[in-house]
Amino acid sequence: MQVEESLLQDEAEYCSFGDTVHYLEPAKLFARCAGSWLYDLEDLPYLDLQMWYSACNFGYANPRLKQALIRQIDTLPQLASQYLHREKIELAKLLVQQIEGSFGQRGRIHFNVGGSQSIEDSLKLVRNASAGKGRMFAFEGGYHGRTLGASAITSSYRYRRRYGHFADRAHFVPYPYCFRCPYGKNRQECALYCVNQFARLFDSEYHGVWDGKAGESEYAAFYVEPVQGTGGYVIPPAGYFPRLQEILRERNILLVDDEIQMGFFRTGTFWAAEQFGLQPDVLVFGKALTNGMNPLAGLWAREEFITPERFPPGSTHSTFAANPLGTAVALETVRMVQEKDYGAQVLEKGALFLQGLRDLQRRFRQIGDVDGLGLALRMEICAADGFTPAQELADRLFQEGMKGDLQLGNRRYGLVLDIGGYYKNVVTLAPSLEISREEIGIALQLLEQLLQRVVGRDG
Question: Which terminus of the chain faces fewer neighbouring Cβ atoms within 10 Å, N or C?
């Protein structure tokens, strides 16, 4: 404990608090990780159900991916991005072929060092493809990053308040959040009222987005997360996205698919867009691409938008884009998921986990909504009426989980949760795709203990 106290004192004096550590006071220190587990300085195990915001889909210290990193360190660990290396080319080829197989369209891959940076690159590409149009549609509850351009299409004003933004702020459209429908409709009877309200914007030039005489919109693209991430793992109803895409195509507005959190089988398919029949014009990916072992992200775009003539060398640049360590791990990641049936595995485990969450919902009236797609799961914490958002209760669940004093048998555990959602009352669950059935059972038992501690036995 003396070492931990000393480190925390130094952190308080020498580290910026602006890089999102201090959601818990005091901040938690960890010493090692393996599989679905983090271990603190006393080697107490914490079952992680958010896996670095879905960056570690394949488990901490995944042996196969770790070996790929070690091999690259021993051969070509560094190379300026003005030169080529085998791993970059082979990775791009595999991703292009995979995306063509999923969506039936040819394109090219463009790398950068992180998700926000790749969103920035996509904004450049989209503006270039639309003769410089700077206006975008995006969803309420959507999250695309905290760089200046990305924050302009992220609906939370909190990320822009101190800094403003360079790009035009997006026009934010209500997401089909059926549990909290912004129009007060019922899922079974609404006939996708929300998407029809979006279509209505193009009925007249006086709705501010469309010139019917010219047949042209002021908006270049619509940025979507097929399943909202930071917004609370909100899953849209069937039929919503095909109708949205139809509206966009009729108006020559591009669809940019942000798969940074939900890509790489989080939802049970390689890309979440596959679950909803989407065909993106641009697709942005990151996080689980390298399983969190080295920064790398990127985008795919349809061929006509990203040819060398239309998007030439130097269109965007980062010193560490397509770095050899990142591309080597990413190449092994893509090979690994092509060799194993992650789709069936994720859907089976997700159904098991979701069944357990629904059982908890029946016994705790403070769980207002439970939903999931693959291993992207949500548990919305509410007041006793089952609907009013209860941020304080959700915060307490997170804080109690981090105490490391949950008990199963003779062993103590901690539980790592993430709290998201529009009202910061949603427990968003993104466990490792390699989580075992035994670990799912442990997770459900630990969640039950937390609920009993925070809201009382059986609600």
Answer: N
